Amino acid sequence: MKKRVIFCDFDGTITVNDNIIAIIKHFNPPGWEQIAQDVLALRKSIRQGVGEMFRMLPTSMKDEVISYGIHNVRIRDGFSELLAYCKENNIEFYVTSGGIDFFVYPVLAPFGIPVEHIYCNGSDFSGERIEITWPNPCDEHCINDCGMCKTTIMRNFPASEYNRLLIGDSVTDFEGAKQADLVFSRSQLTVKCKELGLLHVEFETFHHIVAYLNKERTAVR
Fold first, then answer.
1. pTM
2. Homologous superfamily of the 3-220 domain (CATH)
3. Which Enzyme Commission number(s) are listed (predicted)?
């Protein structure tokens, strides 16, 4: 029997809001809207667009940017319950985030997720402008310049051995959804799953996901 593993997005999934957009919108550097639109429309890669947007912010604003990034977050209902369900049922849980370390790690710290189960982008405040770093780039099988490549991480869990579930909401999840056995989707990801004919279940809170998994487990019995 295949081992089950969950890959869960952060911005707009674990959190109610998209923190990257919220940060940039809050500090409002001129021209950021067009870059964001280009990323959503797939005219620019995620790595390129996110890098460009944060490069608009001077490192002199480091403390304000970090503080806003952490304190602006609201966790989606049911997240603790999903983590408890995974622990009880021996399901591996990974956070695969296009977000950035300075807010992802502090926000997730209270939930006890092992650091090695959290994948996200890095940050460099040593120069004049904020630079985003990319410790989890695409492998030779991905040409999408993801920045934080979810499919590269998923390939460490081959389909022959794992039943792979993806939870997400947006453009950073499109490629991973194509590899998953089942997608729990919101927002743009739901639209994409319908367009591609991918097996997906829409959700609004993590309670919906736990209820689905419980129902599925009961049916198998």
1. 0.94
2. HAD superfamily/HAD-like (3.40.50.1000)
3. 3.1.3.87
